[in-house]
């Protein structure tokens, strides 16, 4: 279970998160929606321990990630995975080496076992045959799938997705969503998906939270969010130019 | 009244930024040293970094070493002739190369070839979130990126310096013996008589410290690069300029300590 309690974060005196409270139950998927540059990715990075908040805490199974140090933090991080917006694949390594990297560094698996595991993950994300290619040689959609495979190869209990379909055409975007849903069902991880794919995302998550003005404006089931009377949420999910949200 | 305080505010802001940068660099270095004390030592990565810093720079080192030795011999020969001391050409060329020119010029070549590339590589890894990816995998970026580079710098610089000096001495030989007609025995005999172990040690100490400084500054600038391509390009320029200036300033202090 992930619980975010009264979280604040500023950059150069500019407040980005102003008291976030959020909860994701074990095995559930939450979509985090909100305007661009409003702190969604920052929130994910704080949850996974890549950034420290100014105030507040992130509890993962009741362990405050901000208070953990050394091996305890390492153990907690090992239970989590993140798929970055751009994939964050190591560009000097091939697709195979990228997926094998965490196995080689974090486990004592034999080379043959690593090979089998990587090939299985590649097959799962539909990329068999691409193992010798470098990240620069593959498309954006393939990169996202490789990043997903690299993340899932360690069987994480919590997976955070930072805009997994941004920059992809609708078909590939849909395929990635389907893949995430299938992986979530089979591996039963807890997931937070930062996305702008509205309303497509509503069919594949358990809950939706909207980040607005540094706070969680609303949180509920996709049905509740879709039918809400809140003018801000209504404007945002319907993509209307007129309304309380002004475009800067 | 604001105009009275404006210059103080300006200098205060510059001083504050300078001290903050220095403090952050100190912390970066201290953290690198701290993590160096703990295994695992990623030998394969260290060897790859030695290849990156050392092997890839060696051809430039050979070229610059040869021409530095040659031009030194040419310049010094005409001065020595005025005093009738052309027999001292070998030791003058060798001592200049061993104690000063070898460590400094080889360090400047490493900055140009490997230091800038190191900053750009780490900077690109930073802006494309590859360093965050390492961290998210619970892998220490210092262990994977910084420490191998630091160790490779410390190992490579003295070796590159040795190559530079050796080639430079033979470059001087080519000019002094081949062109100016000094005898081979005079050239090498003088070197044998005048070059002492402490001269060679001075060069080695300098190279070792330059290796630390170059890789530390290059890695630091890449690790804390700004946003986007412009951020990486700025970081690379800053790394080259700061490393070069630091090398020259540090060389003065090291020379003053080692000579006395």
Biggest pleated sheet of chain B: none
Most extensive interface, chain pair and sizes: A-B, 24 and 11 residues
**What is the element string of chain B, with H for helices and E for strands?**
HHHHHHHH
Number of domains of chain B: 1
* The CATH architecture of the largest domain in chain A: 3-Layer(aba) Sandwich
Please tell me what the overall shape of chain A is.
globular
Specify the structural class of chain A. Answer: alpha/beta
Q: What is the topology, as strand order, of the major beta sheet of chain A?
A: 6-7-8-3-9-10
Radius of gyration of chain A: 18 Å
Class of the largest domain in chain A in CATH?
A: Alpha Beta
In whole angstroms, how far apart are the ends of chain A?
Answer: 36 Å
| CATH superfamily membership of the largest domain in chain A | P-loop containing nucleotide triphosphate hydrolases
In terms of per-residue confidence, which ranges of chain B show pLDDT below 50 for 5 or more consecutive residues?
none
Structural features:
heterodimer; A: 248 residues; alpha/beta; Rossmann fold; 2 domains; six-stranded mixed beta sheet; four-stranded antiparallel beta sheet; 35% helix; globular; B: 260 residues; mainly alpha; 8 helices; 89% helix; 0% strand
Provide a descriptive summary of the structure in words.
The complex is a heterodimer of chains A (248) and B (260). Chain A is of the alpha/beta class and 248 residues long. Chain A has 2 domains: 1-79 and 158-248, 3-Layer(aba) Sandwich (Rossmann fold); 89-155, no CATH class. Chain A contains 8 helices and 10 strands. In chain A, the strands form 2 sheets. A 6-stranded mixed beta sheet of chain A has the order 6-7-8-3-9-10, sandwiched between helices. Chain A is globular and about 55 Å long. Chain A starts with a strand and ends in a 10-residue tail after the last helix. Chain B is mainly alpha-helical and 260 residues long. Chain B has helices at residues 2-36, 43-83, 89-127, 130-136, 141-179, 184-194, 197-223, 228-259. Chain B contains 8 helices and no strands. In chain B, α1 crosses α5 (141-179) and α2 (43-83) runs antiparallel to α3. The model of chain B has no long low-confidence stretch (mean pLDDT 92). Chain B has one domain. The longest helix of chain B has 41 residues, at 43-83. Chain B is globular and about 65 Å long. Chain A binds chain B through residues 45, 48-50, 73-75, 77-78, 80-82, 84-86, 88-91, 101-102, 105-106, 154, and chain B through 124, 128-130, 132-133, 135-139.
């Amino acid at each position: 279970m992930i619980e975010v309690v009264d979280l604040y974060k500023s950059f150069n005196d500019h407040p980005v998160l102003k008291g976030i409270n959020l909860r994701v139950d074990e095995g559930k998927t939450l979509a985090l929606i909100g305007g661009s540059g409003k702190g969604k990715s920052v929130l994910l990075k704080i949850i996974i321990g890549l950034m420290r908040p100014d105030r507040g805490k992130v509890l993962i199974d009741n362990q405050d990630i901000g208070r953990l140090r050394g091996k305890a933090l390492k153990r907690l991080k090992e239970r989590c995975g993140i798929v970055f917006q751009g994939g964050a694949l190591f560009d000097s390594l091939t697709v195979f080496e990228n997926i094998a990297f965490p196995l080689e560094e974090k486990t004592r698996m034999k080379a043959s076992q690593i090979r089998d595991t990587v090939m299985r993950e590649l097959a799962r994300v539909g990329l068999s045959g691409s193992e010798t290619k470098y990240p620069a040689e593959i498309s954006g959609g393939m990169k996202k799938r490789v990043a997903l495979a690299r993340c899932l190869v360690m069987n994480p209990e919590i997976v955070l997705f930072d805009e997994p379909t941004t920059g992809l055409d609708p078909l590939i975007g849909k395929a990635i969503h389907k893949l995430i849903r299938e992986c979530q069902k089979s591996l039963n991880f807890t997931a937070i998906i930062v996305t702008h794919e509205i309303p497509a995302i509503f069919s594949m998550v358990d809950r939706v939270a909207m980040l607005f003005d540094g706070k969680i404006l609303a949180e509920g089931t996709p049905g509740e969010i879709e039918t809400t009377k809140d003018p801000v949420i209504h404007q945002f999910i319907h993509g209307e130019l007129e309304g309380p949200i002004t475009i800067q | 009244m604001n105009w009275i305080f404006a210059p103080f505010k300006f200098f205060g802001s510059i001083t504050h930024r300078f001290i903050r940068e220095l403090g952050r660099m100190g912390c970066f270095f201290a953290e690198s040293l701290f993590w160096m004390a703990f295994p695992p030592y990623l030998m394969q990565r260290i060897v790859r970094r030695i290849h990156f810093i050392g092997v890839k720079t060696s051809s430039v080192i050979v070229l610059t070493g040869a021409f530095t030795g040659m031009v030194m011999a040419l310049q010094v020969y005409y001065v020595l002739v005025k005093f009738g001391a052309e027999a001292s050409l070998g030791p003058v060329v060798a001592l200049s190369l061993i104690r000063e020119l070898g460590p400094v010029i080889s360090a400047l070549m490493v900055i140009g070839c490997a230091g800038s590339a190191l900053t750009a590589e780490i900077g690109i890894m930073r802006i494309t979130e590859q360093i965050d990816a390492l961290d998210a995998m619970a892998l220490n970026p210092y262990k994977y990126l910084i420490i191998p580079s630091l160790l490779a710098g410390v190992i490579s610089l003295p070796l590159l310096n040795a190559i530079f000096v050796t080639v430079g001495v033979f470059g001087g030989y080519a000019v002094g013996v081949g062109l100016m007609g000094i005898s081979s025995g005079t050239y090498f005999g003088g070197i044998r008589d005048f070059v002492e172990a402490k001269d060679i040690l001075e060069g080695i100490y300098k190279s070792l410290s330059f290796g630390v400084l170059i890789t530390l500054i290059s890695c630091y600038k890449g690790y804390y690069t700004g946003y986007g391509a412009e951020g990486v390009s700025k970081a690379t320029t800053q790394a080259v300029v700061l490393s070069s200036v630091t090398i020259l300033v540090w060389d003065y202090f090291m020379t003053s300590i080692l000579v006395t």
